[in-house]
Every structure is written in C-alpha cells, then in structure tokens.
Write a structure and sequence with these properties.
alpha/beta, about 20% strand, globular, Rossmann fold, five-stranded mixed beta sheet, BirA Bifunctional Protein, domain 2
Length: about 425
C-alpha cells in the first residue's frame, strides 16, 4: 500500500512541470511525476562513485542539457524506497528539473525537463526517449534537429575499449597538453570530447568504442539504430560521444540543432550498472534524458488535460520486432491526432500486453502483427463488438477520430 500512496494518482501527477511542449510526452506513455529529491547522502555517494563529469553540456551549466550522477542516484533510491518495482514495468516518468536539493542549479533561461524509463533493458526504451524528446523540442519551436549517438557497450565492452584507448593515448602522451595529461589520469575517455586542437587531431585516429562491443551490446545498438531508421529520424554515429564509465553503459545520445556552437538540447544515457554500485543486490535497468528548450509565454497545461492522459481508451499491442518498430509510427500518428494510448512496447509476449489492455479497460485495441508490419497497417478492433478494420498506419489517427465521432453520435441518439 505504501507505493500506492506515494505513487497513486493523487501524488504521482505533478501539474507544475507540465507546460505545453512537455505535454507531448504524455502521448507516448510517460507519467507526470514529482521530481526526486537529492539528499546530502546522494551527493556524497556520487562523489565516492565517480569524479568524472563526462556528458555535461559545459563547465558552468549555463545553457543546454546536463546529466549528473547524483540525479540518477536520487531517482533510483526513490524507485526502491517506494517499491516501484512492484508496479507494472517499466516505469515511465516525466518530471521537472533541476531536482529539489540540487546544489548546482544552472542559471538558465531554458526549461529543463527529464524523462526516465526504469525497469527494462530493451532497446525500444532509447527509441521512445529519442522520439519523445524530438516531439517536445519541435513543439517548443526548435527546428532542424538531428541525433548524435554512440554506444560504449556493457562492462565487457568497456573493459576492452578502455584498455585499447589507454594504450593509444600513452603512445601519444608527449603530444598532449599538460592539462590534458592530468585529465587522462582521472578519466581517459574525457579526452575524446576535449576542445584542444591537438586532442581533436588525436581523436580522429583513436580506437572507436563501437568496434569493441560485445555481441549483446552490438545487437542492442543495432536495434536502436533500426528504430530510428523506421521513424526516419536523422542521426549520425559520433565516435567521440562517450559517457562516464563509472556508472553509464550502452547507448549515449544527444539531440542538437544545426548550430555547431550551441549546446545539446537533449542528452540521454543508459545507467543499468549504477544500482549495484549504490549497494543494491540487483541491477536496475534504466535510461533517461534531460531536455533544455526555449521558455514560452504559454501557461502550464490544465489539470483536466493531464487527467485525460491517465485514462486512455485505446491500447496499442504488437507481435514481433518489426511490429514493435512500426508501433512507434502508430504512436506518432496518434499523438498528431491528440489521442492518448496505452502501450507496453517493452513487452514481447502478447499475453502480457493483453493483460495490460484488460486492466486498462480499453475500448479500442490497435494490433500490429507480422503481416500488418509488412503491409504498413494496423488492426483496429472494438473491444465490445469485436468488429475490426485494417487501417494504414498513416491514416490511424483520422480513423480513430471518426470512430469516436460516430460513437458520440450513437450515444446522443436516445436523447434526441
């Protein structure tokens, strides 16, 4: 009962962080939540676990997106303290930044927001974060966006890559500026993002992390890229984009505009290994993104608008990897039509998805199987009458709108 009291509807929803651009996250299944509170012990533990600060936008955090280890520690601590692992996984959170208790609050003229997906190590989580982040940034007025992405892999991959890159920079130690030699002593990966001219030259020939991925990590990264290609999201593999190896793993990504001098508008990392380093018995798979976007004059979304997102009448189900990829297109079409949808893209078995649809008491099921994935369609089924239609994915939003208008007319007939 404790976790229900802490994360029930009356406590889970936090209206203060839901402005108009961030409202887009609700269409992808994220839940507005109270921001985790950074405690003194979180900061102390963060300093103990890592001195590195890779994957931050700048030294003073005056602009752009940023990620810090104490934030992730606070989020995972609350996840376990309030027994969120007992709820349906994964948990998808949308929250306001900076977090309460943050001693290094950025002096920013931007909105800073966070999205987290906790409880799954599936590649679909990264794809959902990137897709959602792009929708939020576009709604905020940002244009010409592209994704820069890389993978440092799992522990096995990092060990191999770390050994190679240390050897590489030792061979060129005399070419490094004095300050960069000191950086190398604390975290050699930080040299990959160094702005010094000599470091930029060296990084062109240094080992690439994607060449040292384990089979498992290679498949994971390949799937993330396949999802981006299905969504036609422009991306480039940036070999110098790395994360803090003390607590990060697998995928790292940034979203930028076409200004090469601007800070990243979004920074995303996977941090599956952090929970064990914090002292927990098991790893807690988690991936998150920080966004920094233009502040707008518009008011926060009204409570009634957010409440509608918590009780969607539609449920999206899939069967197979190709269908999962096409489900991302379906989600995008439904967002454009302003239709909220339940989904469980992190689940592979239909039984688990059917159970979710039953609990949600969904009136309409959208089903994408192998045949539908190949044809670019979806089955739209009425849960009560069992009547169904095959609908092209690009027409999904309009089709559901027409069904709802028809349903409304039918309900009003007895009153006429």
């Amino acid at each position: 009962m404790h976790e229900k009291k802490r994360y029930g509807k009356e406590f889970f929803v936090d209206m203060t962080g839901i402005d108009k651009p961030f409202y887009e996250s609700l269409f992808y299944g994220f839940m507005p939540a109270k921001s985790a509170h950074i405690k003194n012990e979180d900061i102390t533990l963060g300093k103990k676990l890592s001195d590195g600060q890779i994957i931050t936008d700048s030294d003073n955090h005056a602009s752009g997106a940023y990620v810090r280890i104490e934030e992730k520690i606070a989020i995972l601590r609350e996840y376990t303290e309030f027994e969120m692992q007992s709820l349906t996984q994964p948990i998808m959170l949308a929250y306001k930044k900076p977090l309460p208790g943050d001693r290094r609050k950025p002096k920013s003229t931007e909105h800073n927001r966070g999205l987290e997906i906790i409880g799954t190590n599936k590649s679909i989580a990264e794809a959902l974060l990137i897709q959602t982040s792009l929708a939020i940034l576009k709604e905020a007025g940002h244009e010409d966006l592209h994704v820069e992405i890389n993978s440092i892999g799992d522990k096995e991959s990092l060990a191999r890559f770390g050994k190679e890159i240390i050897g590489y920079y030792r061979k060129h130690i005399n070419d490094l500026p004095a300050a960069c030699r000191q950086i190398m002593k604390t975290d050699v990966l930080a040299l990959l993002g160094c702005s010094h001219d000599k470091c930029k030259e060296l990084v062109e020939e240094c080992p690439k992390s994607i060449n040292f991925l384990s089979d498992k990590s290679r498949i994971h990264f390949k799937e993330v890229l396949e999802f981006l290609e299905v969504l036609e999201i422009p991306y480039t593999i940036n070999n110098s984009l790395v994360a803090n190896r003390d607590y990060c793993s697998e995928t790292i990504f940034e979203i930028r505009d076409n200004n090469p001098k601007s800070h990243p508008l979004a920074v995303g990392i996977r941090y599956d290994t952090l929970a064990k380093r914090m002292g927990y018995k098991k790893e807690i798979p988690a991936v998150g993104v920080c966004l920094a976007y233009k502040k707008q004059e518009s008011e926060d979304m009204k409570e009634v608008a957010v409440e509608k997102s918590l009780k969607p009448k539609t449920c999206l189900m899939h069967l197979g990897f190709e269908a999962k990829a096409k489900s991302l297109i379906a989600l995008e079409e439904l967002r454009k039509a302003r239709i909220f949808t339940n989904h469980s893209l992190a689940k592979d078995k239909m039984a688990g998805q059917a159970s979710m649809a039953e609990k949600a008491d969904a009136e309409t099921l959208i089903i994408i199987g192998k045949k539908e994935a190949m044809e670019g369609t979806a089955i739209v089924r009425d849960s009560i009458t069992r009547s169904q239609d095959a609908v092209p994915l690009k027409e999904l939003g309009n089709h559901l709108k027409m069904l709802r208008q028809k349903d409304t007319i039918e309900k009003l007939k007895p009153l006429c």
